Amino acid sequence: MPQLREAQGPATVIRREDYTPPAYWVDTVELIFDLDPAKTRVLNRMRLRRNPDVPAQALRLDGDDLNLARVLVNGQGCSFKMDGSTLVLESLPEGHEPFELEIFTTCAPEKNTQLMGLYVSQGTFFTQCEAEGFRRITYFLDRPDVMASYTVTLRADKARYPVLLSNGNLVESGDLPGPGNEGRHFAKWVDPHKKPCYLFALVAGNLVAREQRVRARSGQEHLLQVYVRQGDMDKTEHAMNSLIHSVIWDEARFGLPLDLERFMIVATSDFNMGAMENKGLNIFNTKYVLANSATATDTDFANIESVVGHEYFHNWTGNRVTCRDWFQLSLKEGLTVFRDQEFSMDLCATPSARAVKRIEDVRVLRTAQFPEDAGPMAHPVRPDSYVEINNFYTVTVYEKGAEVVRMQQTLVGREGFRRGMDLYFQRHDGQAVTCDDFAQAIADANPDSDLARLLPQFKRWYSQAGTPRVHASGHYDAATQRYTLTLSQSCEATPGQAEKQPFVIPVAVGLLDAQGQDLALQLVGETVPAGTTRLLVLTEPQHSYTFEGVATEPVPSVLRGFSAPVLLDMAQSDAHLLHLLAHDSDPFNRWEAGQRLALRRALAAIRAEGPAPTAPLDNAFLDAMRSVLRHPALDAAFKELVLTLPAESYIAEQLDVVDPQRIHAVRETMRQQLANALFDDWVWAWEQHKDNGAYRPEPVSTGRRALAGLALGMLCLAARDSGDTVWPGKTYQRVKDADNMTDRFNALSALVVSGHALARDALARFHTLFKNEALVLDKWFALQAGAPDRGGNVLPAVRQLLAHPDFHLKNPNRARSVIFSYCNANPAAFHREDAAGYVFWSDRVLEIDTFNPQVASRLARALDRWKKLAEPYRSAAREAIARVAAKPDLSNDVREVVTRSLAD
Ligand code: TRP
Ligand code: ZN
């Protein structure tokens, strides 16, 4: 059946304030699946009862793309009607006794291109139910506050689907008896925990598993399994290790044990997002499971550790305690991102490695979430309304949400936060709750904390969208030996929120003396100094803090560790920034000082009249960069972060009017200058960091490989200017003989990015080597689609990549590797004067929307910031968005995005 959409009415807006409890509870669900790609039959037997707290009303069950065969109430046929795709039962037994409802439907998994509900990927059945996919499997109360006990029986052909998995524990399995069942078998699973239907999952196919038994502190044994396709077993060790570390960490840090006999991870190559935390049966994008040193980079290894941790930690933060409604999404996502960030940091052996992880997380926040918060899709961490919930799995809900949890930990301390988490689970285990319930538990467990004192105001972080701006200015009074820091705050209007009330902003501050040492800090009114970093909690629009006993004018280090998700405005001299870059004991601010120095130079060159300056970088800056690069004590990973210039997208956010070509040209000139001026230092860095022994994905050698990779890229850039062929030759050799993917790919991208003639051969060779490794081919496609534009050459190359025999538009990873790498991650190639990039974008959005609205809608956001663009880009972008919006049968997903984008 073609997927025709219903006639376009006005989109239904769902509002948080309209929440009402469900009219019925579902206590138990028994599901029996006869799995067949063309026509799967689903028998759904539920025990329901009326919710006594709600006026008596009809039962309305959600459904989507289902064929309904039969409905029985207590074993008897009954009358029902359809309201659109909703199944309505009006004459149900009266009173509050439980009754049995049996629904028999069929669906067509092999035609499911949206990858929501039950679908087939490479011959294996998978499900994806969050947020509203369960209704594509059977009629149900598809909302997270309806929590039920599930028993699931899977029946399928034994040869094609030898492995049959669902949530919980396997209680029975075997061959199916009787005529018509030749060659078929079954498995019956019981989940001992109640859950909302979005956590339901099944997998059926021909898979193999890496297994590991672990013993918990309680002595209970658990079986951990990582299921993959035959042939991928040699890429499962790291995911298994990450899972074991996750189990141990959650018990050690939060006292949260694994609550199942068996915990399974299954990998699929067709997946809309990263991974999904289905109870006891996590389903993952292969990108976040499969890795060995030959096919995966250090970044892949780190991402796998984070995502495995993330999904595992959801078992408590999301599954045991779930969301009352989807507006509370950050209750589980923000908290679980915070937990996976802390997990990765705790696995680091050194403070420097922890700081590197923090800097990487902040970089994501600032390059992706800040723009979202300043654009047409800006929304609070707890949104007030949506048209399509899938559009709200955003960096705001996830990453800013994690910062909001982190600030709570900062305000009550690490131990206080643990007490708060304990209270949260004591109060809410087994419940579907709200963001308010979470913050209340953290505050109640710490009654004397600033958080408890300021809770209603603190919760504005959940309700107000937009990135607050903190303005800081310092004044030193030599006569009184006092230093006064004045902080003020403001926040721009966001769509639908004109007025903003002041936030509670924890600002960690230190003061450095002329030698770069931290001063002991004593605020006026205190009798003794206390510590060298003080947490100032800004609650008013403006407040001044005075330190005493400051013998000489200090250099302030403000917002240490990025203690709040804000934009910091501070007039800092170059001298102060250079001092911080050389000495700050806070690694975050040390890195930040270098970024500010670079950003200041980039912005000056971008804003300069006439053609872009040919040498935006001065010797003071270059010398400072050289000192960091050659520093005897700093870690390689940290050096690599300092020596990487701010991203084009981050630079763009600092400007009122954005000319992507100009930004690109200036940043490239800066890179070229850094490459040439530090040539000898790059040679040194390469020689010192290129050899790292047997590959291990741990922070020290990861940092060394990153710095070696940066050095090689710089050496190829320098070679382009000088006409040198030695370094490109060495780089090509590295593509050929590297013994791990990180080094190999860094070398390949050094050639591609510098535009050297050897890049062609290197790309061809790389393709031949890895033509059977889907995840490596994704990198190969992405590198080319993200390559620096030379005279408009990237778009034609992208069109050719789409015609490549290995390109598959319906596979989200592959589509992203070409189309998103071009539209989202290659601004100078995408924003063309002839608007051809935008036309390409609108064509792809419309094309993908016909079969996978979720992926299309993510792509639709590539032009979110069109209003900031300079002409001719601005008008051309609006036209392209309008062209998408004019299409009559858009999905809700894409329609919501383009409508918001074009608003006022
Ligand atoms: N809850 C998942 C996570 O954060 C992500 C998720 C939500 C998802 N909706 C999805 C994954 C749809 C795949 C498809 O871990
Ligand atoms: Zn999550």
UniProtKB/TrEMBL annotation:
E.C. no: 3.4.11.2
Catalytic activity of the protein: Release of an N-terminal amino acid, Xaa-|-Yaa- from a peptide, amide or arylamide. Xaa is preferably Ala, but may be most amino acids including Pro (slow action). When a terminal hydrophobic residue is followed by a prolyl residue, the two may be released as an intact Xaa-Pro dipeptide
Residues annotated as domain Aminopeptidase N-like N-terminal: 96-199
Residue intervals of the Peptidase M1 membrane alanine aminopeptidase domain: 239-454
Domain Peptidase M1 alanyl aminopeptidase Ig-like fold span(s) in chain numbering: 466-569
Organism domain of life: Bacteria
Known cofactor(s): Zn(2+)
Leading EC class: hydrolase
Pfam families in alphabetical order: DUF3458, DUF3458_C, Peptidase_M1, Peptidase_M1_N
Stored InterPro entries: Aminopeptidase_N-like_N (IPR045357), Aminopeptidase_N-like_N_sf (IPR042097), PepN_Ig-like_sf (IPR038438), Peptidase_M1 (IPR001930), Peptidase_M1_dom (IPR014782), Peptidase_M1_pepN (IPR012779), Peptidase_M1_pepN_C (IPR024601), Peptidase_M1_pepN_C_sf (IPR037144)
GO molecular function terms listed in the Swiss-Prot or TrEMBL record: aminopeptidase activity
Domain Peptidase M1 alanyl aminopeptidase C-terminal: 574-903
CDD domains: M1_APN (cd09600)
Family membership: Belongs to the peptidase M1 family.
Descriptive protein name: Aminopeptidase N
Species the sequence originates in: Hydrogenophaga electricum
